[in-house]
User: What shape does this take?
Amino acid sequence: LIILAPAPGKDHFPKAVNKVKDIKIPVLLMVEASDSSWIRKDFKLLSRELTINRIVHKSIKYDKGGGHKLLWKVGYYWPDVKAFLQKNVGQ
Assistant: This one.
């Protein structure tokens, strides 16, 4: 599961995070440091819940610029996506 810049969707995010314990696959969670504060807050919340629930995951907060639009197209973060997929899905 790859989650890019988790957004709240009308404040439903905290409720959805309660279901983290049901995740049975590795998670890659990514955000850019200059993204909006509420998205960074959701990133932190989700990352913490993944850790608490001992879900295999990798949380990455990039700080090279691009804001929310960074993840709209392939960019400097792509090697992390490839590495995650190769490790967890295979070639």
Summary: The mean pLDDT is 90. The longest strand covers residues 27-32. The chain is about 35% helix and 15% strand. Residues 5 and 29 are 8 Å apart (CA to CA).
